[in-house]
Write a structure and sequence with these properties.
Strand content: 25-35%
Distance between the termini: 48 Å
Number of helices: 2
Structural class: alpha+beta
Shape: elongated
Number of strands: 8
Radius of gyration: 21 Å
Oligomer: single chain
Order of helices and strands: HEEEEEEEEH
Largest sheet: 5 strands, mixed, barrel
């Protein structure tokens, strides 16, 4: 009799955890910006370029850049780095997720005498970050959720959970 009660309570506890975890996927943790920010504070917009393996400048206070007319400008991120917090599924994909990085942007230009080229390196001293308009993810499970906000599923700590229970590997 005691074993039956123990197994029933264990099953109820397990099912409760599964339901709570499943429901938590649909609750927003951080909302995306619905429109392009105005220039009240310094910011830049970046997206990840998987072919070159770096962040590139996609916009600034003047607006988003056109991919076809602006050359890729690499961006270094110092300060609060969102890569340490969010899952790589959100930016390691064909459909880019645009991130607004709040903070001062500095430009370092170097002239290459051999090739007669000026190279620019942008550095953002990031104090905070947001997702611009919508979240794109390469994860099929994440694609079922709203793209207007981040959920617990989008954060890096959850990748460890997925590795244990779903044998999921981000790479």
């Amino acid at each position: 009799m005691k074993k039956t009660i123990f197994y029933k309570s264990l099953m109820i506890a397990f099912l409760t955890m599964v339901v709570l975890l499943s429901v938590s996927f649909v609750f927003p943790v951080k909302f995306c910006l619905r429109s392009y920010p105005d220039g009240d504070a310094p910011f830049c917009v970046v997206r990840y370029d998987g072919m070159k393996n770096w962040w590139i400048l996609a916009g600034d206070e003047t607006g988003l850049y056109d991919w076809n007319t602006v050359s890729d400008q690499p961006v270094g991120i110092v300060g609060k780095n969102f890569e340490d917090v969010i899952s790589g599924d959100l930016y390691l994909w064909d459909m880019p997720t645009y991130f607004v990085l709040w903070g001062d942007v500095t430009v370092k230009e170097e002239y290459d005498d051999n090739h007669n080229v000026v190279s620019r390196q942008y550095t953002v001293d990031c104090t905070d970050w947001d997702v611009l308009e919508r979240v794109h993810s390469r994860n099929e499970f994440r694609m079922n959720f709203s793209s207007r906000y981040l959920t617990v599923y989008d954060y890096k700590w959850f990748d460890e959970f997925r590795k244990v229970f779903w044998y999921y590997d981000e790479s």
